[in-house]
Amino acid sequence: MPRATNNPAGKRRRKKVLARAKGFFGRGKSTIRAATRLTERAGAYSYAHRRVRRREFRKLWIQRINAGVREHGMSYSVFMYQLKQHNIELDRKALAHVAFHDPEAFAAIVEQVKA
After folding, report:
1. First to last CA, the chain
2. Second label for 16, Cα 20 to 30 Å away, from 2, 40, 59, 65?
3. What confidence tens digit (pLDDT) does each residue in 44-81 have?
4. What is d(CA 23, CA 17) in angstroms, rounded to the nearest whole number?
5. For residues 35 and 17, is the Cβ–Cβ distance under 8 A?
């Protein structure tokens, strides 16, 4: 009995790997073995860096809020505590956006918290 290789499915699988390796350099874009290894590695980095991106954005938002609050003579930690006490439910992303793009509105929020 001849050997069955399931060629259509195998070819589809290999084409998918090479499609994911599009734009890679050297053998990584053209040979299945190298492309498989490199796409697995790229996927692992992508997965990890999606989590790193969330951390980095949170750090950026905190820096922007801190800079905006210190202009009004307050520290970040005190400001966030006072926000919670006054039941102002703005997240860090929104606060950073307001602090960066609309300093007058941010000043109003800080004054409301100080009172």
Report:
1. 87
2. 2
3. 999 999 999 999 999 999 999 999 999 999 999 999 99
4. 12
5. yes
Q: Which amino acid is at 12?
A: R
Pairwise CA distance, residues 65 & 87, whole Å: 18
- Per CATH, the number for 10-114 is 1.10.1900.20
Q: Which amino acid is at 19?
A: A
Amino acid at 28: G
Enumerate the domain spans of the chain: 10-114
Residues 19 and 14: their CA atoms lie apart, in Å, by: 9
- Percentages (nearest 5) of helix, strand, coil residues in the chain: 75, 0, 25
> Tokens at residue 46, please?
């992508």
DSSP 35-95: HHHHHHHHHHHHHHHHHHHHHHHHHHHHHHHHHHHHTTT--HHHHHHHHHHTT----HHHH
Tens digit of each residue's pLDDT (9 = 90 or more) over 14-25 = 999 999 999 999
